[in-house]
């Protein structure tokens, strides 16, 4: 059918209903794309140190966190007499408290006011903490 012979409200091939057509002056994506939040350096470092890697040690394949491997290497170097490694290890220990308080995706920190909890709730929380912790020999 030729354009000039079509009725005014024609709906068909490449002619959607008037209410469904793109409106003038209106963007197809009014919200725009979502922006990611800028990450703090401490968060990036904490997430990277919590990542696990596989390492060959004494002929066995072990799974360990990068933080554990970093500490292990630094201690080994310090034992061999590397004073600089000992200094780095002591600095890491000083800054460890700040990194432990940094929330990450794996370990989001939720603050609870312990003074507002009842005795039963505190006991339940302690049982959950003890159930979720590993013995020291497994680290």
In words, what does this structure look like?
By secondary structure, the protein is mainly α. It has four helices and two strands, in the order αββααα. The chain has a domain of 92 residues. This is DUF5681 domain-containing protein. It comes from Bradyrhizobium erythrophlei. InterPro entries: DUF5681. Pfam families: DUF5681.
- Spell out the helices and strands N to C: HEEHHH
Largest sheet, strands/sense/barrel: 2 strands, antiparallel
Indicate the percent of residues in helices: 40-55%
N-to-C span: 78 Å
Summing up helix and strand content along with how strands pair, one would put the structural category as: mainly alpha
Counted by DSSP, the helix tally is 4
Radius of gyration, Cα only, in angstroms? 30 Å
Mean pLDDT: 78
Counted beta strands: 2
Strand order of the biggest β-sheet:
1-2
Based on CA inertia axes, which overall geometry fits? elongated
Share of residues in strands: 5-15%
Task: Provide a short characterization of the protein structure.
With 139 residues, the protein is mostly helical. It is built from 4 helices and 2 strands; from the N terminus they run αββααα.
